[in-house]
Structures are given as C-alpha cells and as structure tokens.
Amino acid sequence: MSHENLQRSEASERSALISTTSYDVSLDVRQAADPAVPGYTSRSVITFTAEPGSSTFLDFIGGSVHSVILNGKSLPVGDVVDGARIRLDNLGVENQVAVTGTALYSRSGEGMHRFVDPADGQTYLYTQYEPADARRVFANFEQPDLKATYTFHVMAPAEWKVASNGAEVSRTLLTSDPATACWDFATTLPMSTYITSILAGPYFRAEDRWQAMLDDGTQLDVPLALYCRASMAGSFDTEELFALTKKGLDFFNRLFDYPYPWGKYDQAFVPEYNLGAMENPGLVTFTESYVFTSRATDAQYQARANTLMHEMAHMWFGDLVTMQWWDDLWLKESFADYMGTLGVDRATDWDTAWVNFANKRKAWAYVQDQLPTTHPIVADIPDLEAAKQNFDGITYAKGASVLKQLVAYVGFDSFIAGSREYFRKHAYGNTSLADLLAALNAASGRDLSGWARQWLQTSGISMLSLDISAVDGSSKDPAVAGAATGDASVLGQVALVQEAVDPVTGREELRPHRLRVGSYDFDAGGALVQTGTIETDVTGARTELPQLAGQPRPALLLVNDDDLTYAKVRLDPVSEAAVRASLDRITDPMARALCWTALWNSARDGESPASMYVDAVMAFAATETGIGVLLNVLDNATTAVERYTPAATRGRVRASFLAAAAAELDRAAPGSDQQLAWARTLGTLSRQDGALLPRLRGLLDGAYAVEGLAVDAELRWHLWHALAANGQASAAELDAELARDTTASGRAGHATAMASRPDRDVKVAAWDAAVHGTGLSNQLLTATISGFTTAPPALLEPYVEPYFDCLRAVWDARSIEIASRIVRGFYPAAQDLPDGGEPKDHPVVRRTDAWLDANPDAPHALRRIIVEQRSHLLRALTAQAAVVPHRPPNLAALG
Asked: Is the predicted pLDDT of residue 814 greater than 60, yes or no?
C-alpha cells in the first residue's frame, strides 16, 4: 500500500500525539548532472516530543530507505517501511529519529525537479512541495501544523550556486574532492514542511539590500537576491525586480506593523514550474516565464508584479501564521490574492490593478463557482489529493473578492487592525477560521460570525439585477412604457433583486452585499460618464432604491459599480442596449471592464448568442485602452467562436473575427501592446482557418512586415503552431526553427507545433508519448497535449474511447500533477451539437456519464476533474443550442 494520500483524520491524530522541534537535513546532489543517476542521498534528523509509549509514522516518497535510527536504536527497514510511510513505535517523551535514504529527482515539478537547459546543457535543481511533496526530498512529518526549525546542508558541485530558506553560513570545499563543496545554512524560524526550499545549479545571481527604520529606532537590514538560469541572464531585468521588491517590503512592513521576519529575501525564477510562484520564506520561487525573453505587454509586467506582491504577502499570511489543515487554505491564498492586488495598486505606478482583478481574477472565480464541484471558501478537505485540487479560483480569487467585500463592510482600518492582531497573537503558529474571526470581531466591534457563515461557508454565486418599473407602474421596461406614459425617460420604482442558491445544499443563500449602483449618461462630447452613485446594503431578495424613483432615466445603470462585491450582474434591457451600442464611450476603466464582464457572462450562460459577444469585441476592442482587459476580451472572443458558436455558423463568425484581427493588426500603433495582442489573436484564430496563412508565413520569413511588430521567438512559435495545425509546416521547417531557438520555451513551442500537424501518425505518436510514455517533463507534456488537441474533429474522434479506458491506469501510475494534466488536457472537449440535438444527449456527455456511473470508487480528485470537464462541455453545447432572439429595446429612451 502506497499510503501517499494522507487523510485529514490521520494528520489530526498525529498532531495530537507529537510536536516537532527541529530538522537537520543533508542532501548530496553532487551527481545531479549525470542523467544516468536517478537520485541522491537524503538524511533527515528530526527531534520531536510524543506521548510516551505511543506510535506514529514519518512520510517519505523515495527510491529506497537505507536506515532508520530511533533514539539511538537501528530499526529493521523491512519491518518499519510501508510504502510512503515509516513506522515509529514505543516513543519516548523526547525523541530523535534519523532517516537516510535515496530520494529521486523529478521531471514533474514535484519534489526536487531536475532540468537540463537545452541552450547550454547545464543542469538546474529546485524544489517545490505544496501541498505535500517535501516528503519526496527528505523524511518528515508532512502536515502544515507540525512546524519546526530547519537546518539544511547541501553537497553540490563547487561552481554551483546553492540557496535555501536560511542564509548561507559556510561553504566548504571537500578535501577529498575539491570539485565539491558543502553548503551549510542558518537554522530557520519555525515553519511548515511545505515551504522549505532548496535551489542548486549554475544559476545567475544578482544581489541588493533593503533597509527600513522600525518604530523602535532599530534598522531592519534584509539581503536581497535574484536567480535565473545562466542562459536567460541577458533578459533578466534585475533592476526593475529589485525596485518592485523594495516597494513591496516598504508597503507590507508598514501595513502589517510586523517587521519582515525571515532574514533574507531571495527570489528565484526556475524552469518548468507548475505554479506561478511559491512563498517559501527567504527563498521565493517563480515560474521563469516571468523572465521575458520575448516582447511582453504591460499587462504581463503588471501580472508579474501582482505575483511578486502576492508571494510577499504570504511571508505574513501563510508563512508566519499558517492554517491548521488544508480546509483553511483560503486563510493564506485568499489574503495573498487580495493583498497582491492591493500592493500593486498602492505601492507601484500601475493604476489598473483592481480593474485587471475584476476582469481576470474574478472571471476565474465565476467560472469555478458555477461548476458542479463548487465548494465553500472554507472547504472540506478530507485528504491530500483533495487539497491538491483545491488550489482553484474559489480559494484564490473568490476568497480575495469576498475579502474586498469585507473591507467595504467593516472598513479598511478595522480590517488591517484585525490582521495586525492576528499576526501578533499567532506568530509561528497555526490557525483556523475562528482565530481570524476573533481578531476581526475585536477590531471592527462587529460580530462577523453570520457574515462568515454566509460568505465563507456556503457555495455558489449571487445574481444581481435591477427591477425597474415605469412612472405609472404599467411596465418593467421604461423604454417600452414610454409609449403609454409619454415619459419613458423618467424612472419609476427601482429595486435591486438578488437570486442565490447554494448548489451544494439546494438552499437559498441570500448574502449581504455592500455595493454601489452607478448612473451613467452621455455628456456634451458623447462620452458615457458617471453622473451619480448610490451606496447601499443588500440583505435579502429585494432591496428598494427609492433614491432613483422619479429620476431621469440614465443610459446605463451599473450594479456593483466599482466592483465592491462578488456577484454576477445582469444588465437591464436599456442598459444592455447602451453598452452594446456605446461600450467604447464609457470613460471609466473599471465601469468598462464590468460591462465587458456582464456581456461575457450573458454569452457563457446562453442568455445571448455567443456571436453577439464577438460582435461587441469587433466593434469596441480596438479602442480598449486597458491592455489587460483587451487581452482578456480577445481570449474570450476566441472561446466564444470555437466553443460557444454553433457549428453551422462558426466558420462565418470566425472568418469575420479573423478579418477584423488582421485589420486591427495593420491599424494598431507600431510597437504597441495592442499591436502584439492582435498579432497573437490572428495566430490563434488561424489554427482553424487557413485564409490568412500566407500572411503568417510572410511574418515569419519577412515577406510581410508590420511596422513596429517584433516577430520574436514567442510570436514565431505562435505562428508556426497555426501553420502546422493546417498542414503548412513540415517537420524539417519546425526542426530548423528549433535550431535557431534552443531555449526551453523554444523546445516547448516545437513540441506543440509538431503535435499540431493534422496527420494520423503524428497524433498516434503524441498520444503514446503523453499517455503511455514517461519521457516527457511536465512542460513538454503540456506542450504535446496542446498540439495534439489542435486538430479537426475527425482526427480526435478515435481517441474518445481510449481516453476513458486509460483514466484509472493513468491515475494509478503517474504522480497527481502529471495525471491531472493528462486527464484534464485530453478530455474530448471540442465537440459540436448536432442540429436539433440536446446537450445532455451528446455522445461524449453520455460517455462521460457512463464512466462516472461505472467508477463510483475512483479517487475523488480524478472524479472531480472529469465532472468539471463534463460541465465545461455541457456549457459549451448549451451555448451552441441557445437560440436567443436579439430584440433591442427602444433606444429613444437613451437620448
């Protein structure tokens, strides 16, 4: 039995028996550069206390265990090792256990990941553990509430850079092998296993310092370092990253009134990373895609800054104070997501942080919260597999949105005061929801238990809309009522209507909302500007807004103006007409972003044809000044075309959008972010439509030049993907492109393009390599899946049955990270609804249902992915089936 999936009940029993004090961990990675060596020696010495006479277990997932010594006595390895667990019996009050074994290098991004740079052949190592992969590197008690101090020692090639959570104390060359050095690191403050970290390899390193004067007159002096692979050093904008880091540390130290506690602050940008970043104290790791080797938009730079601030906030929320178990994962991720945006907004020069949050992060939450697998922010996490699946839009973005609503509800000062008390009281400890509520209750003077139950312990999303009657009450549509009253421009009664049902319990859950309703009208210059706003508390199904009664009818009434609460918004008919006619004339970026979101939700929900969203994008996207919003709406429009538009009309809608993208590419300001956005969209749309392939090839070979457009490595692979998907790129051409771009991203681009070719043998090879082979790293696996699924339906249809047949075997044989990518990526999602067909009767939907019925005992995490993919497919088919007549209201009411 593997015992890898630790149960919450087991973790609770273990923490009731023992308390951990310290770890001393030695790792020997001297031979990491030899691909024939699969692992490395790991020795973990742990001191802990226990109930006398009790038994417990250690966690270790490795190649082998060589020895286990408990309180000076060597234990028989064959008797005490059972899969991923090491049994410890007859414990004393004070205990020390030493475990020596062989840990394995990873190619999945879990544990100690080993990467060989294709650009120069150099080997790089880094660790990634969340939620429970430290046990792949050293034996430990792998759960967040068993905190301890850590002292790390690493033996590695002497010319390498090596780092850990603690500062380097010494570096000693071995007398027996001068090519090897031993690094010793300072003992850390108490922390959880999952945020310990090791970095080793010929990394490029830059150094700086941050200093701050504390209130007591002492000076805080924090060494800073940045790391990336040597081959990327020329693109590493260290000056900008150090500047952002210092701004963030200035901001959070003042905000939290608790000095940064972890000594140094290193940030490493590493290859093939599974996450955006990870908050290891003293050594934060980021995906190296944040080192921009090709042209990047301002939105990408802002997103990087947001991630940097997010991880920095974790130094307090998550690292200093940590959740007891993964049920309260939100205690760190929701707060960090909120604080990351707040940090960008208040500590940097960007002024669109909350606009991008509303348009991008909340959109992720809205999607996740409408799946059958939705869950409360405070979730029920019975085991580690469930914890792995819960790093989702609800835990991050919905939680952050709800915190923004909490700030509106209790006030920012009370929220921060409560946070400060929370840090002071629970530093280096573990907490649950009750601990945070106690601090916030005291700071705000309000009992937040009811608020927490309604927002944090229920599921689903509220729908907000306006119920508007005419002045004589004869109609709910003043634009129509004008015919009877002769005064359609005056509002009658206006009420804010809330609909909310918890999809898990089936109960109505009407949440409290503190929000604004904005009135927008056209000014003398034709701009659509805010002319008034009402701030109100919504507490039930219907909230009257008497302030609006008898007022002139504005062109647009915007519910949740300024995006204070978390809810979907339906525009009233007159407001929707104004938005569809004049979205580009809304001057406020946040209001414009919220209107884009309302139109997108309408399309996703089948309330309006997807083609109408595409029409809006073609009409107004070119004038969108917010590059983050533009990138998002272009992605949405592409999804609307390829997934939500009926097959019978898709070709026409796609052709129109493709022509518009080409025209906007030519019109965009040379060298602008907008120009790059349209170029990327042109490439994406061309994967399914070959009309403009000659233009794409011209961009690659220089025959077609667009002034100011840098056709660099990233864009080139984007264009090659489109050509390959249409059978217009040979293997020899793609190999030649790889020869000119020998980077890791180039290798991934090559894998995607090669697997995109519409050839049966190509698809067979890609399927076998991904599903049956083990030679692909996490990055190359994802690239191969992306290419495989870019194909005409006829090429993919033969893989529907093999997909369902392989699911259990893949889940059992592969790590959860790799298995999840395969299960999610190969799901046959690109399906069309036959004319007159019912979405629930589609063959793939029915085959999915049959698999779920036949596999009730499948691991919960596996079933969750399948259920979610089914839901995404059913939504797409339902949108395709939507036949919604578009009857614009009487626009005369808009003036």
From this structure: yes
Return the structure tokens found at 34.
């030899």
Residues 773-781, mean pLDDT to the nearest whole number: 96
Q: How far is CA 98 from the centre of its chain?
A: 37
226 DSSP β-pair partners: 206, 267
Residue 191 has pLDDT above 70, yes or no: yes
Q: Under DSSP, is residue 878 helix (H, G, I), strand (E, B) or coil?
A: helix
Tokens representing 59? 């966690």
Cα four-point dihedral sign 747, 748, 753, 756: positive
Report the C-alpha gap between 266 and 246 in whole angstroms: 12
Burial bucket for residue 870 (CB in 10 Å: 0-12, 13-18, 19+): buried
Q: 374-384, pLDDT tens digit by residue?
A: 999 999 999 99
- pTM, 2 dp: 0.95
Is residue 484 within 8 A of residue 544, CB to CB? The reply is: no
Backbone conformation region of residue 90, classed left if phi is above 0, alpha if psi is from -120 to 50, else beta: left
Residues 6+ apart with CB under 8 A from 550: 471, 490, 491, 492
Please state, in angstroms and rounded to a whole number, the distance separating the CA atoms of residues 164 and 284: 10
Q: How many CB atoms lie within 10 A of CB 735?
A: 11
**Separation between Cα atoms, residue 440 and residue 437, nearest integer Å:** 5
Q: Which residues contact 594 (CB under 8 A, 6 or more apart)?
A: 358, 558, 560, 561, 563, 569
DSSP, collapsed to helix, strand or coil, labels residue 272 as coil
Q: Is the dihedral of CA 100, 106, 110, 116 positive or negative?
A: positive
Tokens of 611: 């083609």
> Using an 8 Å Cβ cutoff, are 688 and 652 in contact?
no
Q: Among 248, 399, 270, 268, which Cα is nearest to 323's?
A: 399
Residue 683 in contact with residue 696, Cβ under 8 Å? Answer: yes
Chain position carrying tokens 């469930």: 386
Q: Where are the beta strands (DSSP E) in 664-758?
A: none
Q: What type of residue is 622?
A: A
Q: Which pair of structure tokens corresponds to residue 520?
A: 């927008």
Tokens of 893: 């009411």
- What is the tens place of the pLDDT at every residue in 430-483? 999 999 999 999 999 999 999 999 999 999 999 999 999 876 554 555 443 333
189 to each of 229, 314, 687, how far by Cα in Å? Answer: 29, 15, 52
Token pair of 870, please? 């089914």
**Res 470: pLDDT:** 73
Decide if pLDDT at 610 tops 90: yes
Active-site amino acid positions: 311
Q: Which helix (H) or strand (E) holds 892?
A: none
* CA separation for the pair 452, 402 (Å, rounded): 10
CB atoms near residue 262 (< 10 Å): 21
The residue count for the chain: 895
Give the torsion through C-alpha atoms of 31, 32, 33, 36, to 10 deg: 80
Q: Are 197 and 283 a contacting pair, CB within 8 Å?
A: yes
Instruction: Name the token pair of 746.
Output: 């180039």
